[in-house]
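Example (one chain per record):
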Amino acid sequence: MSQDGVGIDLDTSLGYLLKEAASALRAAMEEVLRPLGMTITHYSCLELLAQRPGLSNSELARGAFVTRQSMNVLLQGLERDGFVTRPAEPPTGKALPTTLTPRGRRSLAAATAAVRSVEVRMLSGMTDAEQTAAFRALQSMARSLRGGAG
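Predicted structure:
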């Protein structure tokens, strides 16, 4: 309980600590991506496309945790700058599948190394067993909040 007896004690709130960790992770990622001319969303989009080529704007937006409109603006810029390609006409339906170009793959390789260095730093104080336990706990929390079975 907080000092006034009302609300959440931020010193012991797991939700608050998760938000603090997420904020610190975001800041560290932004710091290493900025010199590469990338944002976290830019990096996330390229990483998603490397792992799942041909995703649509909507699928990329969901995967990067942004709106479809924000992803559409990003994709237009990435296409203009030669990082991704999209067909002029959808092969089926309305979705324009997006793929990485060689330039996009090279850019992603540098960004992945930078982001990996942040993750290594974040986990450096934890044993392998602690990392595994944290991973499982976070998966369980996300599943529980989404209403899925544990």
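Caption: Residues 102-123 form the longest helix (22 residues).
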